[in-house]
Amino acid sequence: MAQREADASVRTVKLKDLVPAATNTVNTTFIVLDKAAPTAARAPQQARDGEKETTTCLALVADETAAAHFLLWGGECGAFEPGDIVRLTGGIFSYHRGNTLVLRAGRRGRAEKVGEFTMRFVETPNVSEIRWGRDPADARRMVQEAVVSPYSQVFKPLR
Amino acid sequence: MPPPITSPPSPPRLLAGGDHHPPPTSASSPEHPFLAAHLLLPSPSPSPADLSSPHLPLALAFSFLTEPSPLPRRLLVALHAAGARFPAFYPAFASALLSLPFPLLLPHPRTRLLLAASELARAAAPGFAPLLASLLRRVPFPGDARLLQVFHEHAAFLADEEPQLLASAVFAFLRLLARNRLAPAPSSVECSKDCEECKGAENLQECRGRLVSFCVSMLRDHFHVCALLGRDLVRSLHELVLVPEFQALWRDLVLDRAANICWISTPRWCTAVAVTAEMETQLLFMMNNVKWGDQKRYQLWFARKHLMVPGGEERIPDIVRFICCGYHPTNEIMQSGVIARWAVVGWLLTSCSKGYVVANAKLALFYDWLFFEEVKGSVMNIEPAMLLMVNSVSQYTDITNMLLEFLFLLIDNYDVGRKEAIAQCVRSAFGVLVKKGVVPSLEPLTGCEKLSPVLRQKLVAFLSNTGPEAEEACRKPIDDVSKGTELKRVC
């Protein structure tokens, strides 16, 4: 069992194979395509604790199989620019604030810049623009229900 | 009572990079092999055991780049002792230094890297030439005046032993002078060690006089070496013709020889000197991997990183030269649906905002046309300009008009004394482009209603004043208008 967990922690996935789950086990490499303006966000927990606001910033990221929305958190907002190749370890792909489906490093994950520019990508499908539902056969699993939009609705493709 | 646990001081760093870069302990960090060797051989000394260690090149490189100022003498002794005993040592040491991503080097290691390069050059150690050549591609960078000093000190030796390197240095410095009109050097973070070594490091921008006098004296004393640069030497000197020192040089030396040098094709290595390694990697990635229609984001990133920075736009003519002469794709690449060279050039031309940069970029694009010889010339050097004109004619007629107009201006004015010879070369270029199948005919230009009538008439008259080849080309019908993506190279 421990061995299986160790394997899972180093296994890398392509973005098209991302499935929403409340586990921080996503290891993947992508290129940052675009970045929105940063916004000040306060997590409910932090608000109660009276902590300072944390800046977040939504980014469009992609690999050669799919695109996704990535939520940059705090220092990550300034650390990554469009064109950067980023390796994410221990990330999480889940609903943020209830409705938006984003990939992020989370508290235990780590995003590192490992290169620049030299990576191919596609902008469709965008796994953050897919509606997911519970698998009727296995309630613990999520399955794709519908494509909300083939491309990101936040970051329009450049043509 | 156990002794208090004190954590050992963390080893010094080579590269900049905060929380969001792989730490030096991670195998994916370029620093990792250096740190690993350093931990095995923390302080290399000239002892026999250290000298024969397989970890010495990386460990010594780490210590050399990170030891606080002044550089411990034992490191220099170890460097040359190992180099003298083991023939493979110097090249391994030099390639270790080359493996570091230069733009990420911290100020102190960068100053030391220059010191190491000059030490290797002083000893004429194997491996010094590629190291110096790679640094030349980096100018301007903080502390780069040391490079000038190295070339100045060893010029006579280099002229005999490494003429290509010396010619590269002359070209890099001429381009820096021409390109920048000496714009301010990129600012850099201060050396955290606050050492005299880094504080004393001069930038080339601060010693323009020495830079000019180095170039002039190399051209006077080692003209045959500088001539290795081919016609791009003349192109560079033209841009500096208003600098008084170059005016005198031009009169005394170049004027008589320019015509001959212009017949020498620019070698590929020369065009690479004027673009940085990152620019080259990214341009090649675009032209080898990025499919038509997907290029927008890459272009945006390239522009943001390399063109929209001080002195960046001035690089465009050199990038155009690199694309025309420095990179000739294979037929497989050209047919694989990736973005073509002419399209990259078209984008670069539209990225220029300064008039003189546009003019120099267009000159760069047509330069090989002006001296094209059917037997010796490479059709791949002149292909981007032709395809850009032909493929822009329907949708972006302005570009075709602008290029054609510029070409006629060049024919009439580039070298008034040799106007007819240049015209003949341009005719020959048109003829060969058709003959080799780059374009099926010149009809898309000569028969295009959208093109300026004056230019069209001028083109027809120009081409008809020629041998049978080009005439035939003009008459050929447009049965299939070329598409950039489907072009075959027949050469």
Overall description:
The complex is a heterodimer of chains A (159) and B (491). In chain A, 12% of the residues lie in helices and 44% in strands. Chain A has one domain (10-45, 53-147): Beta Barrel (OB fold (Dihydrolipoamide Acetyltransferase, E2P)). In chain A, strands 1, 2, 3, 4, 5, 6 and 7 form a seven-stranded antiparallel sheet that branches. A two-stranded antiparallel ribbon of chain A has the order 8-9. In chain A, β3 and β4 (67-73) form a beta hairpin. Chain A is globular and about 45 Å long. Chain A is built from three helices and nine strands. By secondary structure, chain B is an all-alpha fold. Chain B contains 28 helices and no strands. Chain B has helices at 32-40, 48-51, 56-66, 73-85, 89-98, 107-122, 128-136, 145-153, 155-161, 163-180, 196-199, 208-221, 223-226, 231-239, 244-262, 268-273, 277-289, 295-307, 316-326, 331-334, 341-350, 355-366, 379-392, 397-413, 419-435, 443-446, 453-464, 468-475. In chain B, α9 (155-161) packs across α10 and α17 runs antiparallel to α18. The longest helix of chain B is centred in the middle third of the chain and has 19 residues, at 244-262. Chain B: InterPro entries: INTS3, INTS3_N. Chain B: This is Integrator complex subunit 3 N-terminal domain-containing protein. Chain B: Residues 100-459 form the Integrator complex subunit 3 N-terminal domain. Chain B: Residues 1-12 have a biased composition (Pro residues).
Helix content of chain B: 55-70%
Q: Output the radius of gyration of chain A.
A: 16 Å
* Biggest sheet statistics of chain B: none
Average pLDDT value of chain A? 88
Query: What percent strand of chain A?
Result: 35-45%
Q: How far is the first residue's CA from the last residue's CA of chain A? A: 48 Å
List the helices and strands and how they pair.
The complex is a heterodimer of chains A (159) and B (491).
Chain A: H1 2-10, E1 26-35, E2 39-41, H2 44-49, E3 54-62, E4 67-73, H3 76-79, E5 84-96, E6 100-104, E7 110-116, E8 130-135, E9 138-147
Antiparallel strand pairs in A: 1-3, 1-5, 2-3, 3-4, 5-6, 5-7, 8-9
Chain B: H1 32-40, H2 48-51, H3 56-66, H4 73-85, H5 89-98, H6 107-122, H7 128-136, H8 145-153, H9 155-161, H10 163-180, H11 196-199, H12 208-221, H13 223-226, H14 231-239, H15 244-262, H16 268-273, H17 277-289, H18 295-307, H19 316-326, H20 331-334, H21 341-350, H22 355-366, H23 379-392, H24 397-413, H25 419-435, H26 443-446, H27 453-464, H28 468-475
Helix pairs in contact in B: 1-3, 3-5, 5-7, 6-7, 7-10, 9-10, 10-12, 10-14, 12-15, 14-15, 17-18, 19-21, 19-22, 21-23, 22-24, 23-24, 23-25, 25-28
